[in-house]
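Convert to structure. Protein one:
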Amino acid sequence: MRSTEFLKLHSVLAEIVGEPLGGEPPFPKCVQEIQARGQSPDGDEVVPEAALRWLELLNRGVDPHLLRQALQKREKDPASVRALIRFLVSKKTHSQADREKLDWLVTYLLEVWEKGDRDSGERFDSEIERILEGCDFPPLSPHGEELLLEIPLLLDELRFFERFSQITESRVIHRGRNLKNQFEEEFFHPTVLAAIVNYNLVLGRKMRGLLHETMQTIAHSAPEASAALPNTQDVLQSDYRVISEVLQQLTVLDREAQREQEQKRERTGPAPLPPEQLAAARAAATKPLTLEEQLIALGIDPGRQAEQLRNRVKEIALRVRSSPGGAPLQSASGTLVLSDWESKAFLSEYSPSEESFRADFARSITSVIGIIARIEEELPAYFETRGAEHLWKRHCDALLYLLYEGRRQLETLKNLAADSTKRGLQDKSTQLLATAEKLESYAKRVAALF
C-alpha cells in the first residue's frame, strides 16, 4: 500500500475511533513520518509493515455498525469508501467483522453508483473490478460456484413477496446471511461481491416498498400502535440485528391488518355477477376443468409456480454443466443423485420449436428432475412453517402444484416409454420408467400430506 491511500484510510479510521475517545488517539512514530513525507511531491511511497499493523489495529477498533453510522453521517466520499474496500479485500486474513463491513461498503457505494448518471449497460462486476484493479484472485472453487447458484433462488423468492410479514416469516434475511458466511474467504472475490451486492440491492428495494405499504396499513388500522413505531427511513438505516424486535412487531401488526381485511371481505361478501357473466359461469360449470383451472380453483397461481419450476430446471442445468462428473445436487433435505441419462439430458439443448423424440426425452427428464428438486426444497419448509399460516400456505400451494404437475409428467414419461418400446429403443424405455419410478415415490410422499 502506498502512502496516499494509507493516509486516506488512516484519516477515516482514526476519526471514527476517536469519536468515543473525545479525540484521535496518539499516532506511532511510523505514521507521523508517513504524514510528514506525504506533504512533499515525492511522498507517495510504499508504507512499512509497522504502519499496516497500526492501520489494522484501528480497523479492529471500528465495528461494522459504528463504521456504517459514521459514513452515513459524513458527506458522500466515494474515494474513501473505495480505499476501505481495497484495504479489506487485500488483507491476508479476514474476520467476520471484515466481511460485514465489506458487505455494507460495497452495497453502499454501488447504491450511490446505481443512482448516479451511469451508463445503463454497465454492470456491478465491472465497477468492482475497477475498484480492485491490481489485486489478484484465483478462480472460484466448485463449492463457491455452487453457492453462487443459491443467490438466484433467494432473488426468485423475493419477487413473489406481497407483504412485509413474508420477508420476516420466510427468514430470507437470515438465510441470506448464512449463505454469505458459507463463502468464507471467497466472499472477497469480485464475482461473489457482485452477486451479493445485486442481492442486497434487490432485497433493499423490496423491503422499502413493502415496509412503506405496511406502515400505511398499520397507520390506518392501528394508529396507536403506528405512533410508537420508528419511521420507515430509521428502520431501513438501522442494523438488522438492532431492530429485530421492531421488525417482529411490524410483522405481527401486518398480519393482524391482513386478517382484518380478510374478515371485512367475508362480511361484505362478493358482488353479484351480471346476468351474462352468471350464464357463462353456469355453462363453464358443466365442462370438465383443465389442470390449470383446478389449480386456480384451489387458490394456486399455476403461472407463478411454473416459472419457479422453469428457473429451478435452469439452475440444475448450470450445476450439471459446471460438474460434468455427475456430482450430487445439494438440497434442503440431503442430496439428489442423478442417473447418467438424467445428467446428459441437462447437457443437451434443443430449440423450443424442435419436435423430435430426443427433444421430448430431454425435456421430460429435466422437467421431472426439476419437480423432484422443488419437492425436496418445499417439504422441509412445509413442515417448518406450519405455525405461520400465510407462509405455510405458500409451501402447501407449491407442493399441490408439484403433485398435479408431477402426475401429468408421469403420464408423459409412460407414454414416451411405450413409444420407445415401439421404436425398438428398449434402453430409452427402461431409463424413462426408472425416472418415472423416482418421481412416483416423491409424488406419493406429497399425496400423503393431503
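Protein two, convert as well:
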Amino acid sequence: MMKRFLAILAVLALLLGCAGAETAADPAAEPEKAAEDFAVKQHSAVVQGQTLNYTTTAGRMTVETAGGACEIFFMAYTLDGVEDLSKRPVTFAFNGGPGSSSEWLQMGFLSPRHIVTDEHGQPTSLPAAIEDNEYSIMDLTDLVFIDPVGTGYSTPAEGAELDEFIGYENDLRSVGDFIRLYTNRYNRWGSPKYVAGESYGTTRAVGLVEYLSDTYSMDLNGILLISCLHNCTILMEADQPSDLSYALYLPTYAADAWYHKKLDDQYQQMSLEDLMKEVRAFAGGEYLSALFKGRNLEEEKKNEIAARVAAYTGLKAEDVAAVNLRVPYRDFCKSLLKDEKLVIGRIDGRYTGPLTGGDMANGSADPSNAAMGGVFGAAINQYINEELGYHTDRPYITLSNEVNGSWTFPDNFGMGFSQEKTIADAMNKNRFLKVWVLGGYYDLATPFFSSEWTFDHVFINSEHEKNLRFSHYESGHMIYLNEPCMAQFRKEAEEWYLNSGD
C-alpha cells in the first residue's frame, strides 16, 4: 500500500529583463560551484503592463539543521528600489512530489519569466521559448523558490546522508531552517511572509506553519495551497479505497466527461459551475448513502444510482453497476474515450493519448505527464544557466525517485496521515493567517471536492472563517496550464495579497 502511495506522490510532483552583469565567480575558472556561492543579476520584465526592475539571486546556501547540514539551492527574485521592506511581502514557494524541484511553480506560474504556451497550456516549441509572464505576482511580492534536499541542486553537506532530510519531519526541518536563515540574512523579519506550495507542497506548507511558529516564533501572513493534499485517507490509492473516496472523485469524473462532450444534452448544455454544484450534492448525499449500505443496498436502488452516475460521467450504467457503483479513476481514465482508443490524463483530464498499457498511478500511462515533463525539465536548465547565470556541472534533479521511494510520515501514519487539526490550530492561534485553497476541476490526482471536504472538517473559530478562501479553475492539477485560469488567478491574487495582514 505504501509503495503505491509513494508512487503517486512522485506523480503529483509533475505537477508540478534577462540581460545584466553577472557578479558570481567566473564559471570557466570554477566549473563546480561551492555552497554559499551565488549568481546575482539584474533583470527587467513586463508584468501587468508595468516594467519591473528586479534582482535574482541563485545559489546554494548551507543550512545547519538538527539532523545535519545541507546545501539548499534557491532562486530569489527581489524588486529593486524598495526602501521599506516592512511593506514588501516575500513568498517562499516549492512544488511537491515530495521529490520534485520547484521548476513547475517557477517556470509555469509565479515568476516574472515563464515558458511560452498556447491558451490551453501546451508549449509552442521544443525547446520551449521563455518570455515575460504578464500574470506573475512579482509586483505584489518578492519570490524565493526552494528546491528541497535531493531535488534541483540541493544536497546533503559533506558527511551527511540523504536519509537525514527525507520524510515529513526531516523535510520540514531543512526547508523551515532555510526559510529562517534566508529571512535573517536578507533582513526580512519585518516583511509580511507567505508560503506557496503545490500538491505535496501543500502538505509541507501546512507543516511549515506549525514548525516555523513553534521553533522560531515566525508566524506567517498567509499560505497558498495549490492542488491540495492534506488527508491521505481520501486518496484512491489504497488497496481498498474508502467509500468516501469514490464520492469525492465523482465531480471530477463529471467535469472531465463534460469537457470531452460525453454527456447527454441535459448535462452537456449546463455550465461547468452549475453541473459541479449538482454533482457535488448528489455525490455527498444520495450516492455516498448508497455506497455506505454496501451489499445491503436494494437492487432497484443500485440500478437507479448506477444510472445517475453514468449520466454524470459518460459511462454505461451496466458497467457502473457491475463494479458495485465504485469506479476507480484508473478505469475511468481508460473508459471515457475508449471508443476513440484514447485515454485521458489523471494529472489533467483535458489531455488525451493513445490507449496503451502502463500504470496511471505512476504516470507511465498518463498523457498529461508526457506532454509537459521533458519540456519543463529542459527549460529550467536553460533558464538557470542562461538567464540566472548560475553554472555547475551537477545535474539538476527535477524529480527524485530516491526521495519519493524513502518517504515516511510521523509514527508510520502512512495512508492515515491527515492535517485538519494542524490547519485548525494554526488558524485559531494566528488571527492574521490567511489560507487560500486553489484547485482544478479536471484534476484526478488531488480532486477539488476532496479539498473542500478536508476544509469542511477544519474546525476554526467563526471569527476566522473570513481568512479561508477557495478558488476553482477550469484546468487540471497544474492550474496554470490554461491562460484564462492564469488571468483569473492573477486578479484574485492581487485582492488576496492586498487584503492579507488585515
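The chain has two domains: 2-233+372-499, 240-368. The chain has a mean pLDDT of 89.
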